[in-house]
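Q:
Got a chain?
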Amino acid sequence: MLTLKFIIIYILISSSIIYLSTYLGYFDKPSKRGVHRIPTINTGGLILYLFFLSTVSQSELNYNIELIISIGFFICLTGFVDDRINLTPSTKIVLIIIPSIYLILNGISISDLGQYEYLGKLELGKFKIPFLLLAIGLLINATNYIDGIDGLLLIFFLSCLMYYIFLIDDIETINLLKFFVMASFLNLILNLLPSKNKFKVFSGDSGSLFIGFFISFMTIELYNNFDIHPAILIWPLWYPVYDFLFVSINRLINKKSIFKPDNTHLHHFIYKKFNGNIISLLVLFLLVNSSIIFLGYKISEISKLLSLSIFVIGFTLFFAVRLIVFKKFKN
C-alpha cells in the first residue's frame, strides 16, 4: 500500500510538472551538442526533486538525508534557472558553494579520507573545508557532464542508489532509498520515450546538478555515519570522474575554456559509433559500469590501499585510451 501511495504521488507530481512545462514553454531546444531534434521538456529534475522532498517530508527516517534533500532545493533551483537564462559559471559555482557550506557546517562532513594499510589515516586537517568544497564542486560538474545522452545520467544515478542499498544495513534508510530508486526508474522511462511523445522529459540542469549534489553528500554521509570506507564508495563514481578529468585536461592542453561545452565526451564518441542507437549505448554502459563497480568492491575487500591505487591507475589508463579515441574522433 505504501508503494502504491508513492507511485500515485509520483504520477501527480510528474503530470503536473509536464503540463506546466508544456504550458510555460520549458523546453530544451535542439543544438549542435544535443542528440535530440525536437524541443523537449527539460524539467525532469524538478519531478525527481519534488518526489524526493515529498517522500522525506512524510516520514522521519534519516535526518541527514532529509537535510541533504531539503537544502538541495537551492541546487535544483539553480539548475532550473540555468536552463532558462544560462547562468555564468562563476554564478553557478557560488550558488552551489553556499548550500554546500551550510551542510558541511551542520555536520555532514568528514575530517579524513579513511584508514589505509602502511599509510594510516589520511587526515584532512585544516584543508577539510577547501577539500570538501573542491571535491563536491568537481563531482557536481562531472555529473552534469554526463547528461548529454538520454538516460545516461539516470542509469548512473540508479547504479549509485542500488550500490548504496547493497552497502548499508539500516532498514529504514534502505526503504527510503528504494523509493528514490522507483522514482528514478520512472524518470528514466520518461526520458527514453520517443522524441515525438509529449511525455518525454529530460532531466535538465535541475536534475543533473541535484543528482551530483545528492551523490556528493550521500558519499560523505555513508562514510561519516554508516562507516563505509571511501575506497569502497569511490567506485560508482569512476565514469563521471574519469570523463570530467579527461575532458577538462584535454581542453586545457588545447588551450580551450574548461567551461565551454563540446562533444569530446566518451559517451558522445560511442553514440556516434553506434549510429545514434541510444539503447545500445546504455546497455553497454550498464554492463561496463556494473562490472567495474563489482570488481572495485571486491578489490576493496582485499585491500583499501590497493582499491585506491587501482582507481588512480585506472584513470591513467582511461586517459591514455581516451587520447587515442579523441584523435580518431577528431578525424
About this structure: The first strand starts at residue 27 and ends at 28. Strands lie at 27-28, 40-41, 112-116, 120-123. The chain has a mean pLDDT of 89. Residues 304-330 form the longest helix (27 residues).
